[in-house]
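ok so i was messing around last nite and threw this chain in just to see what happens. nothing serious, just curious
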Amino acid sequence: MQDRAILRSIENGRRITKDQDAEFLYAYQRAILLALQEAGQLNETQYRYAEDQLKAQHTAAAREKTEKA
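result:
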C-alpha cells in the first residue's frame, strides 16, 4: 500500500502569487522535482539541471523584487 497525501479542506483560501508567495512556490516546485526524481521520472543529471534552472529563476525574481523596492 502506498502512502498518499489527501487534501481534506482548505482554510482561509487565497490566491497564491509570485509576489507574495515566492518562497512557498520555490519550495513547492523543488518538492515536485524531488518527487519526480524519486519516482524515476528524472535522473540525477536532469534533476540537477532543473534545480539549477529553478534556483536561477528564484534568484532573478528576488533580485528584481529588491530593485523595485
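not much to say yet. Residues 44-68 form the longest helix (25 residues).
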